[in-house]
Write a structure and sequence with these properties.
- This protein has about 120 residues and is an alpha+beta fold.
- The protein has a domain of about 80 residues: Alpha-Beta Plaits.
- It is about 20% helix and about 40% strand.
- It is built from 2 helices and 7 strands, in the order βββαββαββ.
- The strands form 2 sheets. A 5-stranded mixed beta sheet has the order 6-3-5-4-7, with helices on one face. A two-stranded antiparallel sheet has the order 1-2.
- The longest helix has 13 residues.
Length: about 120
């Protein structure tokens, strides 16, 4: 809490509490694991290209078990739209399973990286 104002991570909004206006910024972070033929096919690079069309930060990384993990952070609408775009892109033919979960945002994350 900052001066009685809770910080909510996602969309910018203004709430009017009588004389006092409070501004809040709402961000979400999500880890999404893609299983299928997702390694060795340019999956991470394609995800990075998709990220260029969105206001998000994060990374795409190969996992030892053959999955690719995508971490996205930003405005809830942007994160959800990018996740949807990945699933509707040419990458959909490589994906057999998607498991996603909301996680804590990571301060200082900028841009979208391939790891």
């Amino acid at each position: 809490m900052l001066g009685g104002v809770g910080l909510i991570l996602g969309r910018v909004g203004v709430e009017d509490f009588g004389r006092r206006r409070q501004i809040r910024w709402v961000m979400m972070a999500k880890k999404i694991a893609y299983r299928g033929k997702v390694q060795g096919v340019g999956f991470r690079y394609s995800v990075r290209q998709i990220a260029e069309g969105f206001t998000v930060s994060g990374h795409a990384a190969n996992l030892p078990d053959g999955r690719v993990e995508v971490f996205l952070q930003g405005d809830r609408d942007e994160v959800e739209a990018m996740e949807k775009e990945i699933g509707e892109s040419h990458l959909a033919s490589f994906i057999r399973e998607v498991v996603g979960e909301e996680v804590n945002a990571i301060a200082g994350t900028k841009g979208f990286q391939i790891q």
